[in-house]
Amino acid sequence: EKLMQEINQNLLIFLNSFMENNIVEKLAVIFADTPIFFLPIFLVTMWIYYTYKEKNIEKKENLLFIFYSAVIWIIISYIIKAFVSVDRPETVLEWVWKLVLDHIPDASFPSDHATVSIAFLVSLFLAKYNKVALFFLIPAILMNISRIVVWVHWPLDIIVWTIVWIISAFISFKLIKKCKIINKLNLFIIKIMSYIKL
């Protein structure tokens, strides 16, 4: 455990040292939060596209599966936080270089941003949105690194759980697609949305 703490601190200090450069600091602040908003923008934009431009119920179902995957894993993330409490770096280390990002004062582990971004990316690949997933891959990586650089998360919060989330998101997406109740729910949602012209 001591070794893990040492690795965490040394990695954090190394990454945070880049904040001495004003350009890196500004980019880190932008990337630490901004890419997460791609998820709702993508889902809404594609839903409208498949409603008006290319009518495709199967694609709409896939969008719903992507949404469910992200929601399920954010709920699991909050459940984990209820039982495991890891303080954020700025509350543990008094000699913080500079805290530049306002955030909710909750636990550092697991990272909600990492959870949602990984679930989103894995779901995009599984739903055959490969080009879109590759487009979002770099911003997602930059976002998760930036969360460490600006002292919001410990490196191992992101690194270790990224691997766990990739495997978990893959399993959950496959299970969601096979669930008959969710498939019926999808058809109901699509029917209601088409009724209101969406």
Explain how this protein is built:
- This protein is mostly helical and 198 residues long.
- 75% of the residues lie in helices and 0% in strands.
- The chain is built from 9 helices and no strands.
- Helix 4 (57-83) packs antiparallel against helix 6 (112-126) and helix 6 (112-126) crosses helix 8.
- The longest helix is centred in the middle third of the chain and has 27 residues, at 57-83.
- The chain is elongated, with a radius of gyration of 19 Å.
- The model has no long low-confidence stretch (mean pLDDT 78).
Poorly predicted runs: none
- Number of separate helices: 9
Overall radius of gyration? 19 Å
Amino-to-carboxy terminus distance: 52 Å
Structural class: mainly alpha
Q: How much of the residues is beta strand, in percent? A: under 5%
Number of strands: 0
Average pLDDT metric: 78
Q: What can be said about the biggest beta sheet?
A: none
What's the SSE blueprint?
Blueprint: H1 2-16, H2 22-33, H3 38-52, H4 57-83, H5 89-92, H6 112-126, H7 130-149, H8 155-178, H9 180-195
Helix pairs in contact: 2-7, 3-4, 4-6, 4-8, 4-9, 6-7, 6-8
